[in-house]
Amino acid sequence: MTALKSGDKFPDGVSFSYVPYTEEKGDITSCGIPVNYNASKEFANKKVVLFAVPGAFTPGCSVRHLPGFIDNLGKIKEKAVDLVVVVAFNDPFVMSAWGKANGIKDDSILFFSDPETKFSKSIGWTLGERTARYAMIIDHGKITYAEKEPGPGDVTVSGAEAVLAKL
Questions:
Q1: Taking Cα atoms as reference points, which of 36, 39, 51, 22 lies closest to residue 125?
Q2: Is residue 61 among the annotated active site residues?
Q3: Measuring CA to CA, which residue among 41, 49, 53, 113 is closest to residue 83?
Q4: pLDDT tens digits for 133-167?
Q5: Three-class HEC string of 20-58
Q6: Is a pLDDT exceeding 80 seen at residue 29?
Q7: Pick the catalytic residue: 61, 81, 95, 160?
Q8: Which residues are bridge partners to 37 per DSSP?
């Protein structure tokens, strides 16, 4: 498959892995059990903002990318967005800890692992073996916005402000 673009259908067969947040496992050192998330099925009836980062706990992702989505979460949700999802190549335990480390103690932002970078590779949006930095809006299974950053350190077309402007 090639890069996704506005007007495309979100692909079939896309699954991510994540650790659902629970209060019992709310401490950053507590580990829940990863589950598979059938994104193709779940995104079919929702409006979704998905953004991808090269790695959890990295400076660009933790300082410049994720905070914009946390800070603008209310504005994004006001645009009838059902799900906000961040995807990285890291395993689901790391993604869960990254969410907790950033104060996300609910399902307001889902922290997904792209196992073996399968989805990102399928659309050609990787940085070596890592997920590239990109964002997309999926509206009931249809892509309405999809952009990959031109440079590995850039946060322009995939940042919260750019996505918010397209909602």
A1: 51
A2: yes
A3: 49
A4: 999 999 999 999 999 999 878 899 999 999 999 99
A5: CCCHHHCCCCCCCCCEEEEHHHHHCCCEEEEEECCCCCC
A6: no
A7: 61
A8: 16
Q: What angle do CA 80, 82, 42 make, to 5 degrees?
A: 140
- Whole-angstrom distance, CA of residue 78 vs CA of residue 63: 24
One-letter identity of residue 97? A
Please give the share of the chain, as a percent, with pLDDT higher than 70: 99
Report which of 132, 134, 136 is spatially closest to residue 145, judged by C-alpha positions. 136
pTM of the model: 0.95
CB distance 134 to 151 below 8 Å: no
> Greatest CA span in the chain, whole angstroms?
42
SS3 86: strand
Could you give the CA distance from residue 112 to residue 126 in angstroms, rounded to a whole number? 16
